[in-house]
Amino acid sequence: MSIARITTMVFKSQAAADAAAKSYEAIEVNDYHSAEQLIGIQSNGNKLIGVTLFDSQEAMDKSDAVRDERMANPDIVSMEGVVGKVRLNHLNWLMLG
Fold it and tell me: What does pTM read for this prediction?
């Protein structure tokens, strides 16, 4: 069963959130080599939500250094995170194919 880490970040401004979102688009596979899936969502202008799926706790722990570096962004006003077991991860293969 996969592990999900969901992080919600509120930035000082929409411009700061836009810049952070843009930097996530350029994430190198090697930065999160232990992740199964990365999803980035921008909401309400200055709010970003990151969803990362890992196959185990150990795999998630391997990404902590990269995550900590990104979370040190001085433009982040507040941050909330949750970690839990993934109970459903539906992929519509008909839509992908």
Answer: 0.85
